[in-house]
Amino acid sequence: MQGPDRTYVKIDLAAIRANMEAMHQNIAPGTKMAAVIKTDGYGHGAAAIAQALEPLPYLWGYCTATFEEARALREAGVEKPVLILGYTFPACYEEEARLGIRPAVFREDQLSALSDAAKKAGVTFPVHVAVDTGMSRIGITPDDRGLSFVKKALETPGIQVEGIFTHFAKADMLSPDPTMTQAQAFRHFTDRIEQELGYRVPIRHCDNSAGLIRFPENDMDLVRAGITLYGLWPSEEVPKDIVSLQPALSWYSRVVFVKDLPAGRAVSYGGTFVTDKTTRVATISVGYGDGYPRSLSNKGYVLIRGKRAPILGRICMDQLMADISDIPGAAEGDLVTLIGTDGSETITCEALGDLSGRFNYELVCDINPRVPRVYENGQDA
Ligand SMILES: *Cc1c(COP(=O)(O)O)cnc(C)c1O
Q1: What per-residue string of b and e applies to 59-84 under the rule 16 or more CB within 10 Å gives b?
Q2: Which of 3, 13, 249, 341 is packed most tightly, with the most Cβ within 10 A?
Q3: Dist. CA 258 → ligand 1 center (Å)
Q4: What are the per-10-residue average pLDDT scores of the chain (381 residues)?
Q5: Is the domain defined by 13-230 classed in CATH 3.30.450.20?
Q6: Among the atoms of ligand 1, which is closest to the Cα of residue 167?
Q7: Measured from the CB, is residue 34 less than 6 Å from ligand 1?
């Protein structure tokens, strides 16, 4: 077995807990939190994160994108509610009902299928209604038509409208106006449900990470914290001095081979880099098959012994080469930092995203499952 030596990701669970706490300080008093742990917790490991957060009294539960992600949490012993943020297919409803997993509803045909599943499972099925206030992705419209959908949902036997939510399209952009317009449309709609249908939906929620940092006035009953849970930023336009965050993820590999190449030697596929002098080259055991962006070929750098080692030539599937000519003593077996801090140098996800032309969310989601995740500070210190 390769073990964690070849390449591994380290997740600091204390940073995750500190980020939760920092966000909780900033949100409206009495508002609950949901931890968004879709795509295996943005690549950080959903089960480990849920287990670390589960005891927090202000944590309502978790959000995933798929039924399989939600069920995996149950299999890991996670007990709090799980909400699936996207569409779930009817074949999953009965098992969802049994497992206390909440689907998002917004299609008429879901209601009878959910009702049937509730009957078969012998439970009341809590659901969250998705409302489209400007994202144009999923959701009912916040108008008369949407209102009659909610009325129908309220009258459907076996289901309970536990929640209602909308999603902001521009909460991470400088101007607050589009977000305020969406929030207002959402609030107006939930008010209409209360006044015209006589029902106060218990859990109304709209804020994502950017929203909960910038607009606590929109927190309502619950906020959905995603990227900030991991200590990463929704965008450059979200001010960094409101909530203090610590990145939880760092990524490492190893120098597995060192050699000196004379001038005129081509490195890696296609020979896109050719040495112009004697060059000491380290081969490092990580590649795009691990999720390290191939677009960093001839462009990115890694950290070895606290110094930058530029990537030479094309990044391969499982290996890459870097120039260690200016790193005295660099040797086989050395630790290589791909994301994180080594000495006075730091490579952030945001910086690596910029350099590789990728979004920071995408970068962490794409770290391949074959890269072992190593957790530290799992116990409350
Ligand atoms: C992904 C997602 C979130 C979390 O977004 P962040 O920007 O990571 O906080 C919240 N709500 C919905 C509906 C989502 O799809």
Answers
A1: bbbbbbbbbebbbbbeeeebebbbbb
A2: 249
A3: 43
A4: 80 98 97 98 98 97 98 98 97 97 98 98 98 98 98 98 98 97 98 98 98 97 98 96 97 98 98 98 98 98 98 98 98 98 97 95 97 88 45
A5: no
A6: 13
A7: no
